[in-house]
Structure formats: C-alpha cells, structure tokens
Amino acid sequence: MSDTQPTPNAQRHSGDYDPHASSLRGEVDPGVMEELLAVRGSIDNIDATLVYLLAERFKATQRVGHLKAEHALPPGDPGREAAQIARLRRLAEDAQLDPAFAEKFLNFIISEVIRHHQAISASRAGDGADPLT
Ligand SMILES: C=C(O[C@@H]1C=C(C(=O)O)C=C[C@H]1O)C(=O)O
C-alpha cells in the first residue's frame, strides 16, 4: 500500500496484533505453516468484519432501546425474536451453517441487546442505574 493511501481501520487499530502468533511454530512443516498463515489472514479479515457489523447492529439496537424507553415499551419483543430466529435458521440451512448454532448466536446477541434496553429504560426512569451504552 502506498503512503498516500488512507490506512483501513482494521489495520490502523490492530495495535500490536501479531497475525503470525502461534503455538505451532517449530512444530509444523514450513510449507504447511505458510498455508495456515494464508488462511488465517482470511479469518482475521472475517473477524474484523464481524466486529464492524456487530458495532453497527448495536448502534441500531441502541436507537430502538431509546425509542422503547421514551414510549414505555417493553425491552424484549418475543414475537419479533421468534420470526428472526425462524428466518435465520432458514438462511443458515441455505448457507450450510448449523441452524442450531445460528439460533444460539442470535439469542446470545439479543439477550445482550435486551440487557442494554433494560439499562436505558432504568436510567431514564431516574433510578440512578448506569446505561450500558
Ligand atoms: C431491537 C429490538 O429489541 C429486542 C432485540 C432484538 C434484536 O436484537 O434484534 C429483537 C427484538 C427485541 O427483543 C427490537 O424490538 O427491534
């Protein structure tokens, strides 16, 4: 990359991350290690993308949290969640991803979102609780 090009966020904020860090050094054939590192480069790119996607999703759900608190709506919406989970399970099947994993992953995220919504609502109610935002 030339000096005049802006550095992508993923590289700018990677700190002292060593993409070659491994406990396998010296134990693996150098050719195998080379291939492993090439694949790990893709894994690192995917992980960085996941972080950015999750950050955007949480920005959106925080807006929903404030809207719900403002209008005294409950933090969770089980009807919406059931529809989301059914949809994600179908998408996972199409993508050859384990649907049970997709469901568990979405439930994990949603439970964190609901926790945030509860905190937003509590802080609006003036009970001194810190919002998790
Ligand atoms: C974001 C919302 O709040 C909760 C979180 C959801 C999510 O993370 O997708 C979905 C439903 C709600 O339980 C919402 O109601 O849309």
UniProtKB/TrEMBL annotation:
Keywords: Isomerase. Residues 1-12 have a biased composition (Polar residues). The keyword Zinc does not apply. Residues 1-26 are annotated as: Disordered. This is Chorismate mutase. Residues 30-121 form the Chorismate mutase domain. It comes from the Bacteria. It holds the Pfam family CM_2. GO terms for molecular function: chorismate mutase activity. The keyword Isomerase applies.
